[in-house]
């Protein structure tokens, strides 16, 4: 270590110790190497996609030309957008309600709201399958109404996450700000709009990001609630993999990764990373 | 004030109970238009609850609050003609200074041009001209407080309520803000009602002070009356520093009185106290009203004899503690009776602090108009 250190290491500067650097490096490789391999092999000029046979972008053309795959992607994005919007509204209202008001059965409701996070996904999936079958949910609707069942299922497991994030943000709210606004003449609604929502904004962005990504890549629950005409991207990829892992699957996955990374990046930029970090 | 003062806030038999705890207990007081009124008391005495009831954030359990003659029962905080500066200032962090100050005006539907003029005027008033575009996180605590002040003043309220306005500032800034607040109050002519636990703050700013103790008004008086003529032991002890001794009233005539205190000795006053003869009373003596002498020469005895009969208004003791505070030196003296008394002495010259030291025998005297006799 002394070999590398120009100035003596301070007691808490662990990032400058060799073992810490090696450890962090190993963790990074473990986490991201599979993703990097996936992306590299999307350019592999080989049908079997086991050995590298040369560079090509033809599988991207193939993936984008695959109507079923594109349709699945559009379905997934539509569901994610709708579920995010609804979860944001529901989750925020639930968080504000639990934070702001006292009412009977509050503890029970508080616990029930986070239930979808705790219950195993497979159970939720089966439950939704039986529920929609039991009430005779129509599965011959036109797009986008045929996505209704999946969207409802996604909202169910997404909105508790929004509630959680927003509640933790609300815990840091200074109630005197609310009183100050009222003191200056604001009504309850104006306090909510002008003071509370700006305070919650970083949590709303974080909650929306969470919902969107959770919905986008959900497989288990979607698998149980999707009909024959409502294939989503993860379900489609799964069915493609069942035949063979072609670079086409890699290409489609790479596109999805880029899409989510860009979305996250844009949201963070729009909000200021600092504000989001403050949420936790 | 020459003309009879007109009450802007009338608090009539107001009580506030939180469950079993009585925070405010049957308080009645009038706050006059245009005065700087201070509610002073230790933490948990109910003073903030009283202020919050005026603002409308708490509802009285009993009694009535009138602002400018109008009963406030059922009127929510956003409809009351008062504004409040909060202890945490509660400046909206996501709005610029100008937007913060303009917020109330916009809610009230004031037009754009007038909003700009009034915001600029209010910011000028609190010496924040040119800070319009700043965000609150780019400002110091003192500046944020000025924003909160401007935000309230811009509404031109009938009464401005301030909750512990100076508690978060450092000592120098606090002293400066005390002057500025008084100046500001005179300039705008709005009634200020301030809550504080700091007696210096209360004494320096207030026209009148209500000392609150256990939810009740202990005394309502001007700062100097409060200090020089405390009504009871709590006020005497809470406002300023004081020595209190128990004694029996032995003489009580219109122009003189005497109390025999086992702890302090015989105390003589050049005015009557109108208490029952032989009653148990308390004598309060401020540390700065006691003169220290080196013993032996009989100076203390002679000085005391100037306005009191022989054997009264002097005591002897030993210095057991000293703290040099720069402008004054504070002595803790053990009297011959074993009781302790605090005496302060101004350091009028640079070498004054060398006059006395630990374990010195000293004698002391006080004038016949200095002790205060307390019946409760």
Describe this structure in words.
- The complex is a heterodimer of chains A (280) and B (376).
- By secondary structure, chain A is mostly helical.
- Chain A is 72% helix and 0% strand.
- Chain A has 13 helices and no strands.
- Chain A has helices at 18-41, 58-65, 67-100, 106-113, 115-118, 121-134, 148-170, 175-183, 188-216, 220-225, 233-243, 247-271, 273-278.
- In chain A, helix 2 crosses helix 12 (247-271) and helix 8 packs across helix 9 (188-216).
- Chain A is globular and about 70 Å long.
- Chain B has 376 residues and is α+β, with helices and mostly antiparallel strands.
- Chain B contains 9 helices and 20 strands.
- Chain B has helices spanning 47-55, 97-107, 112-125, 141-153, 171-188, 199-205, 223-228, 233-238, 299-305, and strands at 7-18, 21-32, 36-40, 62-67, 70-71, 82-85, 159-163, 191-196, 208-213, 216-221, 243-253, 256-261, 265-269, 280-285, 291-293, 314-324, 328-335, 340-346, 361-365, 372-374.
- A 6-stranded mixed β-sheet of chain B has the order 6-7-8-3-9-10, with helices on both faces. In chain B, strands 13-12-11-14-20 form a 5-stranded antiparallel β-sheet.
- In chain B, a hairpin with a 2-residue loop joins strand 4 (62-67) and strand 5.
- The longest helix of chain B is centred in the middle third of the chain and has 18 residues, at 171-188.
- Chain B starts with 6 loop residues before the first strand and ends with a strand.
- The mean pLDDT of chain B is 91.
- The interface between A and B is medium-sized, with 18 and 24 residues.
